[in-house]
Hints:
The protein is α+β, with helices and mostly antiparallel strands and 177 residues long. It has helices at residues 6-23, 67-74, 76-79, 100-114, 154-176, and strands at 28-37, 42-50, 57-65, 86-96, 119-125, 135-147. Helix 1 (6-23) packs across helix 5 (154-176).
Amino acid sequence: MFDPTAFENMKVVMEGCLYDYDLDGEIIITDRNDWVNLAKLSRKFEMTLRKNPRSKVFCTFILQADLANLTAELLPLSNGVQQSGASVFIKTTLEHPENEELYKKSAERLKTIWGANHSVQQHIRKNALNEHAHLENELTISFNRLIQEDQIDDLQNMAEYMVKTVNEMDHLIRTFN
């Protein structure tokens, strides 16, 4: 038997939180990925949800840990506690017609939900050959620090904020249509 890493423990806690919301009918889990990169000795876990089957808003929890994070956890004297833990990102993807005001409002709304102290990157993707196609408005929240195992309770709050995010962003898109 082996002792699970902080990455593994955080992944299991977040899965449980999000599946509880799914079982309660508040959201639908639409995708789940658990990658191990053997070339770089890194891990990445993603779990995506949406409000309902018709919703054009997706919210993805991303947990990443690399070799430095694992080494710091398993061999604490090698490179210090500061590298121990995992990075967390929340990616929100909205599908909607092109609308400059909606770009700004969606970024503002995310900062209202998650807090202004987190950085938000926004990328817009569209099919340039089809002017009638909806575009993808992708907003990624970075917490700018490693999440450590002693902060595992924060994941429950993140799950709650993810549910709030899909609900509020879904409402925001509907107000522009």
